[in-house]
Amino acid sequence: MSARRTIPAPIRRAVSAGILIAAVTVLGACGSEGSPASQGAPAGTAPAAVPSSASSAGSASPAPSAAAAAGATLTITDPWVKTAPKGMSAAFGTLVNPTDTEVTVVSGASPLSPMIELHEVVESGGKMIMRPKEGGFVIPPRGTHRLQPGGDHIMLMGVTEAVKPGARIPFTLTLKGGGTLEFTAIGKEFAGGKEDYEPGTHAEGDKGDG
Length: 210
Fold this sequence. Notes:
CATH class of the domain at 67-197: Mainly Beta
Strand content: 35-45%
CATH superfamily of the domain at 67-197: PCu(A)C copper chaperone
Order of helices and strands: HHHEEEEEEEEEEE
Oligomer: single chain
Number of helices: 3
Helix content: 10-25%
Largest sheet: 11 strands, mixed
């Protein structure tokens, strides 16, 4: 029987170290394919996803419509309501449009009246009459539109509570496109504006207070 050969200790240590280095190299190569560590992210975390241009566009808030933007900036100066014991009254003021887009008021509402119309005053048969204004009130870009006795105004019908001097009456105007303008008008005495309604437009016998 031949004598058993003994490998010196320095050689055994060198061989073990080489095997260990090879194992680490293999494991490192496996982890380099798409792993967070290979991309500089902390271990155990995934890299942040970068949204595509399509998803970014889909998640962006839509730009407000021209009418909605106008509704946020349309104002009215010196709004007031004609005092009245009951029945009918009218509201006035100056609509101001500071935007670059035409704004149209299409309707109005107030807790003071169950029925509100946008009116104009025109001459008919030698007298002045009031009638609903077709198309509403149009305020030009960077312009104004005056609501006044004897002209365009907001007509309130079916008023059951007296409108007294100093009364504060809330209004909401609806704009073409869906925007709104809310304001408070002050009750004021006014003796003018006795125009008649256009025959057939309202109940027989109604007289205007605009």
